Input
Amino acid sequence: MANIKIALAGNPNSGKTTLFNELTGSSQYVGNWPGVTVEKKDGILKGTKDVVVQDLPGIYSLSPYSLEEKVSRRFLVEENPDAILNIVDGTNIERNLYLSTQLAELGLPMVMAVNMMDVVKRNGDKIDFGKVGKALGCEVVGISALKKEGGLEAAQRTVELAKNATSSKKRPEVPHVFTGSVEHAIAHIEESIQGKVAQRSIRWYAIKIFERDREIIKDLDIGVGLMKHIEEHIRDCEKELDDDSESIITNQRYEFIQNLMSKALSKSEQRKNKATLSDKIDKIVTNRILALPIFILSLCVMWWLAVAEGGPGTVLTDWANDGFLGDGWHLPFTTHEVDGKDFEAASEEFAKAEATVKAWEAGEKTASIGDEETGETSDEWTVDEAAYNAAKEVEEPDPSKYGVWVPGIGALIGSGLEKLGVGNTVKSLVNDGAWGGVATVLGFVPVIFVVFLFLAFLEDCGYMARVAFIMDRLFRKFGLSGKSFIPMIVGKGCGVPAVMAARTIENERDHRMTVILATFVPCGAKTVIIAMFAAVFFRDMWYVAPLMDIIGIAIIVMGGIALKKSKMFAGEAAPFVMELPAYHMPTVSGIWRHTWTRLKGYMLKAGLIIFPACVFLWFIMHFDFKFNLLEDEQIAESMLATMGGWIAWLLKPLGFGSWQGAAASVSAEIAKEQATATLGLVAANMDGASTAAHVTNLFASFVPACVPEASKVAVAKLIAMSFMVFNLFIPPCMVAIAVTFREMGSKAWGWLAIAFQLFVGYVLAMSIYQIGLVVCGCGFGFWTAVALLVDAWCLWMVFRPARRTNA
Amino acid sequence: MNAASVAVVAVIVALSALAVRRVLKKGAPCECGGCRKCGGGDCHCGK
Output
C-alpha cells in the first residue's frame, strides 16, 4: 500500500510526462502539443515501494474551465497529495509561474523543478533559484528531463518534504502576491470559511471565493447570509480597484511575476533582440503560403521512404515477406555465382524453363512470365521442341550453393509439418490460416516502422506542434477550431486515443464533430492496408500512399465544413491557444521509444488478435453450414462465402461485390489490418507463388467481363483503389466504434457518427470506381449517374451558404 | 486424420483460445485513453 502521493503538475508541454517516465520507468505517450495527457496517470517512484507519482494533465491555471484543469484541480484539491513537484519550462519561466503561484497557495509542500536548464544555459540566460524560491515559499531546483538530469533528485527532495510535513504538520509558507485591499478581503474570507476547509489550503479557497468560483462556492456550501457578507468585501475591493474580482487577481498575479522576474531572471544581452533558430525556421515552416506545401512534402517524403520502389521500407518489406517470413534469405556478403550466374538469374532461368515446359505440354506455341505482383506480362517467347527439351534439363537452383542460406519462418514451418506427416488440410490451416494471416500483417511491419520512425522524428523535433498551428489557420477559415486537429494527430497512431483526446474540446458540438472526424486520419493499422496495396498494386505509384493521408485530411476539412453548416453543429469555432515548443534535435532513445511502443503493439496484436481471427476465418472458409469439410474448389459453398454473399451485393457499385471482398471488409472491423490478412486467406487458392500474386489475381477476377482486354489491369488497380479507400474511410475498428459511442454520449449520436463515416467511405469508393470505369472507356452506367449525383449533393452540402446562428 | 494432425490442430485451437481469453479478459480501451487492443491486451501505460 502506497502512503506518499506526489503530484506532478505544470503547464502543457513543460516536460511532465517525460519526467514521469524517467521517475517511474513507464513509457507513457509523450507529445509536444497540449492535450496529450487527458487523464491523470500514476506510477511508483523508482527505488521506492510506497511513493506514487501522479502525472496530471498540463494546465495553465487552476480555473475550472477546461477538462484538463478540472482533472488536475480535482486531484490537487480533493485527493490531498502529500506534496507537489511543479515542473516549469525554464525557457518560458515567466508564463509558467502563473500556475506556480496558484499551486503554492494550496499550502502543500512543493518543489519547483525548472526544466530545460540545458537550453536555458545554452541561451546564456540565468535564473536565480534562491529569489524565486523565497518569493514562492518553495524549493527550486534546475533539471533537464530529456537528458535525465536532476529529475530523480528533485523527486527525492519532494518525498523528503512530504515526509517532514507529515511529521511536523507545519503549514508551508504561501506567497502573498496581492496588494493591500485584496489581501484584506482575502483575510476576511479566510476568517469566514474557517473550519470548512483544511487549514493549509484556506488561502487558496479564499482566493477562489474572491474570484467567485462557482464550483468552490457550491462545494463549500456557503450559506446565503455568509456569502452576502463576503460579497460586500469583494465589491468594496472591486470598487476601489475599478475592475472585476477575477481580473484583479489575474492582473496582480502577473504584476507579481513580472516584478519577481525583473530580479531573478537575467536574459543574455545577445539574445534580447535576436531571433532564435526556431523563429527563423518558423518563418519558413509556418509561412502562410509555404506551410501547407511543406506539410504535404513531409508526408510525401515519409511515404516515399516507406513504400517507393527501392526505398528502405520496400527493401525491408521484400526481405521480410520473401526472406524472413517466407522461404529464406542469403546472408549479406556471402553470396557468389555458380556457373557464371547468381541465384536470382538462376531462379529466373528456372521459372522460364518451367513456363516453357508447361506451355509445350499444353500445346501452346508461346510461353510467358507475368510479373508476379502486377499481373502484367513481362516476357513472352516462342516455344518449340528443342526449347522444351532444353527446358526439361534445367534444375531448380539450390539456394545453399549460392551463399549462406538462412531458411525463413514459413519454410521452417512447412518443412516441420512435412516431417510430422500432417495432412494437406492441416497444412492449409497452418500455412494459409494461422501462420499466413500473421505473416501477412508482420510482413508490412517494416513500412509501419519507417512511417512511425519518421512521425516520431517530426513529433520530437517540434514540427507536429506546428502542424496543429498550420491546421488551425486552415480550419479557422471554415469555422472549425484547430483544437480539433490535435486528436487527429494522435489518430495517426491509433483511433481510440484520438477519440478520447477529443474530450479536451469543451464545446459539445465541436467535441462530437471531432469524434466523428478524428478517425478519418489513417491510423497505424490502416497503414498496413496502405502498405499492402502500395506494395501489390501501386509499386510504380508511391504517391498513392501519401494521397490517402491527404484524402483523410480533405475529408476532415470538407466534412467539418458540411457538418458546421448543419443545425446540429452550427456555431462559432472555439478559441485555440497553443504554444510552439522550440525546435530541438530529438534524442535517439526518445525516437526509438516512440517507435518501439507502437511497433510492439502491432506485433503483439498480430499474435493475439490476427492469429485467432485467421484461424476462425479459415474454419468458416473450409466448412459449410452442415460442418462438412470442403475441398478448395468447393470453397464458394463455405460459411464464409455464404455470409459474405449476403452483403456482397451492397459492394457491387464499388467494384468488389464478391464474398471475398465482403469478408475482408467485414473482418477489418476486428482490427483494420485484418483486411490484409483476410485477403491473403481468401486469395490463397488463386494462381501465383506469393500472397502478392494471389491478391493480384483475386482483384483481376473482380474485373467485369465487359471491360476491354487492354483496360483489365488498369480496372483491377481501380478496384484495388476502391477497396483500399472503402476500408480506410468507413467506420474504424470495433474498439474505436465502442469508444465513439461512449464519447458521443448517446446511442443516437453514436449511430449518427457511424452512418456519417459509412456514407463517406462508401461514396468515395463508389465515385473512384464508377468515374474510373468511365475514364478507362468502360461506358457510363446507372451507378455512374448515382455516383455523380451523390457527389454533387455532397459538394452542395460543403459549399452552400452557412446558416446564421446565435451561438 | 493422423495423430500429428490432431496435435497440430489442438495446439492452434488452444493458442487461439488463450489469445482471445487474454484480450477479452483485459478489455479495451484502458482508462488512460490508450488502446489495449493495439497492445494486444496491454495498454502502453502498463495497466
